[in-house]
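To: structure desk
From: M.T.
Subject: fold request, one chain
Message: Could you run this one when you get a chance? Sequence is below, nothing fancy, just the single chain.
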Amino acid sequence: MDDALNGLRDERPQDGGSQDEVIRFLSNPAIYGEDGPVERVETHAAHVFLCGDTALKIKRAVKYDYLDFSSLEQRQAMLHRELELNHPTAPMIYEDVVPVTREADGSLALDGNGPPVEWVLRMWRFPAEMEFSAIAERGELTDVLADRLGHAIADYHANSEPREDDGAVLMAEIVEELRLAFSEMEEELGTERIAGFLEGCERQLAAVAETLTARSSAGHVRRCHGDLHLCNIVLVDGHPVPFDALEFNETFGICDVLYDLAFLVMDLRHEGLGRAANMVLNAYLYTERGMEDPGVAAMPLFIAVRAGIRAMVEIHTDHARSTPGRSVAEARAYLDEALEVLSPPAPRLIAIGGRSGSGKSTLSRSLAPLFGAAPGAVHIRSDLERKAIFCVDPLTHLPPDSYSKVVNRHVHQRLRIRAETILAAGYSVLLDAVYLTGSERVALVELAERIGVPFDGIWLEVDPDRLLARVAARQDDASDADETVVRQQLLNDAGEVEWPHVDATGPREQTFEQTCRILGLNGGAT
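Reply: Done. Structure tokens follow.
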């Protein structure tokens, strides 16, 4: 369990008293009812003891500029706050808070009858290999898991408490704190790099300040997780579960929900998982039913600030551990990534069309991370938007009348409305629909001209027999199109499709590479 260093100032501790006796006591396997050894994990603010199925956590008796655990009462209060924040969303991990007591004979006991000498957060231990950091390191963060991750974070935020703080003010305060911290790190991070970062943050903040304030009024500033990186999410029974929410400073935990999400997006990109980062954002936006779309304008700022904080933390950690210079390269890498994000490319609109079974969604998932502001284009899929219109789960099968001409017009109108909102916010859009009628295709050209963004359409051609075979083999897909639907589509003349045609009958990799060449995209970026 990795408590990320979240402070924005000097991290040198002031010792609040010796805990050596308690540490020795909690290192005894007998209190866990086990014979095996006790593993102890030490962080800047806690000691965690792991044995059998149990994890016990105590706060270190330290005082930093941004947290104070120096008294027993403060440590008790923070453990209760940690339990309060995490138990509702991770009841399979968090159990209770109990004392280490001094018994009449002078010995220590866990939850005994004597007066407390320390407080312990008792938890159920989970396999370390199920942390998303470990899953990602093994190369097992699949598209399915990335999609579930985005939905899980959206659900987490939906259940978080709204706050009235102004999101623009909150971000301005964080940028100012970074300015102060970086003023003492010029040797490690470089004067020009720091100046570019701060200038970029100020530019982006000025551009989105009104949006952030409006989002505050709309309830998007909440008491969030605050430390939402890969090490603080675990896979339990196939479902991502956030844990170890930041408890020691309410200011750090109150933020725009997209700023909370940006930590995870930044972490994924830093680990070279751009495709997963893009899918997490898109799943999150879909779960929110598009309400967050205008807020994507702030994502470059949010991601950059999260990377800037990580750069600062790397340097602070070196100082705290008396290992100066050890993490300078990593810190500079974070700041370089932030600089890249702070200069996003102009938005563009791309549409992928073709009959059901032609591989539009598969191709779109690979293309979306390759263009637009980080972490890539917003992928809007007609199959998912149709399910949203009827307020059903993506895998719920809709009846035939849900595909009437009237409904189809509504779906395409919804696609264009969402696309216009996102493009106006400065983010690129990838539309994924059949687009059999000329009027639907012309409407996209008109949309791009109205917004003032470049447009490209790609039409996927596939042998009819292959189309039928693909839809027959589909499982766990949002599309309801079956062989009957495909046969009907084949009877409908799409007219002269003026978009570049790509033969998608062959391997997916071939289709992807050909499409990238046409669109001028770097196919190796995912």
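Reply (cont.): The two ends are 29 Å apart (CA to CA). Let me know if you need anything else for the meeting.
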